[in-house]
Amino acid sequence: MNKIPFPKVPQTLKIYKPIRPRTRFLFTGRCETQNFSIALISSQEIAMFIEFNLENTKLVSAKSFSSKTWSREVLAKNPIQQNDTFFIQIITTNDHFEVFSGGTFIFSLKYTVPLEKITGIRLMESMEMYEFEMEMTIE
């Protein structure tokens, strides 16, 4: 999967290659006045669920779902404003995800689902996607 221009929201994009450390997921789009979410998923688990809250708390929250249990939630200040464009990067490392907005680090989240089990990316709620790109490092 390389670049997908204007992916429809909501939608689940399939991943056909195994995810490895140093894989980058790049999301460019425009949000509205409501919350929006991105999730990296496997067939039965959620490797990472990120919600960008624009309505109330103005926070970014992230958590994962594995073995029928939600992980502890990570919270950070939401750098994305209502009715604004965004550039979000999710980078995989050896043991956690790193999340950036516009090149600025927001937070990290430890893996509870192995990277190789990730099979899709779910785009949800009130946003317009201009482009999605997945970059995989060749070793």
TrEMBL record:
* PROSITE patterns per record: GALECTIN
Stored InterPro entries: ConA-like_dom_sf, Galectin_CRD
The chain positions of domain Galectin read: 11-135
What GO terms are given for molecular function?
Answer: carbohydrate binding; galactoside binding
- Record Pfam families: Gal-bind_lectin (PF00337)
What SMART domains does this protein's entry cite? Gal-bind_lectin, GLECT
Q: Which UniProt keywords apply?
A: Lectin
- The signal peptide here is none
Name by which UniProt lists this protein: Galectin
